[in-house]
Amino acid sequence: MPVLYQQLHDATELMKHAQRIVALTGAGISTESGIPDFRSPGSIWQQQPPVSYQDFINKSEARQQYWQIRRNLSAQVLSARPNAAHLALADLERKKRLLGIVTQNFDGLHHDAGNNQEHIVEMHGTSRSAACTHCGRRSSILELQQRIDAGEIDPLCPDCGGFLKAATILFGQRVPDEVLSRARELALSCDLFLVVGSSLKVNPAATLPRLALKNDVPLIIINLQPTPLDDYAEIVINEKAGVVLPQIVSGL
Ligand code: NAD
Fold first, then answer.
1. How far is the centre of ligand 1, averaged over its atoms, from the C-alpha of 26 (Å)?
2. Centre of ligand 1 from the C-alpha of residue 161, in Å
3. Alpha-carbon distance 129 to 21, whole Å?
4. Which end of the chain has less neighbouring CB within 10 Å, N or C?
5. Running DSSP on this structure, what letter comes out for residue 21?
C-alpha cells in the first residue's frame, strides 16, 4: 500500500475512536487560502522579520514598519476564504467529534468556515479588530487602517492615548491568561490531539500537544515540514492540509 494511502487510512481509523478531538492550527492551514505563513522557505519573514511588541511600543520606526507589513497582509486576509482544510474541521464539528480548535492564526477563517465561535480559541488574537496596547479598548480595524492609509503615522487611543494596533499578539507580547487557560483546558480534556499547519516552534501554542501527550493522548501531525514533536506522534503526514484533511474527515 502506498505510504500516503496507509497514513490516511491509519489517521481515519485513529479518529474513528475519538470523540473529543482538539485541533491546533497554525499559519500553514491558511496558506492554501492565499495567506502566506512566516516560516516556510522563501516567505516574506526571511527578508523582513516581524516587529516585536517591545519595538512597537518603544520605536516610531518599528511602528511604521508594522503598518507597512500590515498593509500587504491585511489585503491578503480580507480577500481570503476558508479552504478545504478549514471546511474539514467544520465538518468534524458537525460530526460531533471536535471538542475545540486552538488557532495561532488571526485571520478568522475558522469562523468563516462555520465552526462555532464558542469552540475556537484564538491564541494570537484577531486581525479583525483594533486594540489599544495600553487599556485594551477594542475598536474598528477598518477605521484604523483608513487613518493609516490617509497618512496618520501614530494613531492613538481616544480614551487613554496608548498606541493602537490590530488586536493580535506580537512576538514578545503575552498571551492573555484567560486565553491560555482555555487552550490548556482543551488540551487536557481531549482524547486525540491534531496539529494542522503549525511548525510547533512558537510558544506557548507549542506546549499544548505536550500536555496532551502527558495524558497518553494520541497525536496526529499534518504539516508540510518536520516539527520537533514528530517522534512523539502516532501519525505524521507531510502533505498539504487542504488535500489530506478532507479525505480523513470524510472517512469518519
Ligand atoms: P507556524 O509556526 O504555524 O508554521 C507554519 C507551518 O505550516 C510550517 O511549518 C509549514 O511547513 C506549514 N505549512 C505551510 N503550508 C502548509 C499546508 N498547505 N499544509 C500543511 N502545512 C503547511 O507559523 P509561522 O508561519 O511561523 O507564523 C508564526 C505566527 O505568525 C503564527 O503563530 C501566527 O500567529 C502568525 N501568522 C498568522 C497567519 C494567519 O493568521 N493566517 C499567517 C502568518 C503568520
1. 5
2. 33
3. 29
4. N
5. E
Give the pLDDT of residue 1: 62
CB of residue 199 inside a 6 A radius of ligand 1: yes
Measured in Å, residue 38 CA sits from the centre of ligand 1 at 6
pLDDT digits (tens, 9 = 90+) for 66-109: 998 888 788 889 899 999 999 999 999 999 999 999 999 999 99
User: Is any ligand 1 atom within 6 A of the Cβ of residue 37?
Assistant: yes
Please state whether the predicted TM-score (pTM) of the whole model is above 0.90: yes
Which runs of E-coded beta strand occur in the chain? 21-25, 98-103, 120-122, 125-132, 138-140, 164-168, 192-196, 219-222, 235-237
Ligand 1 pocket residue status of 225, Cβ below 6 Å: yes
Q: For residue 55, count CB atoms less than 10 angstroms from its CB and return exposed for 0-12, middle for 13-18, buried for 19 or more.
A: middle
For position 126, what pLDDT does the model report? 96
Q: Place 111 in a pLDDT band, splitting at 50, 70 and 90.
A: very high
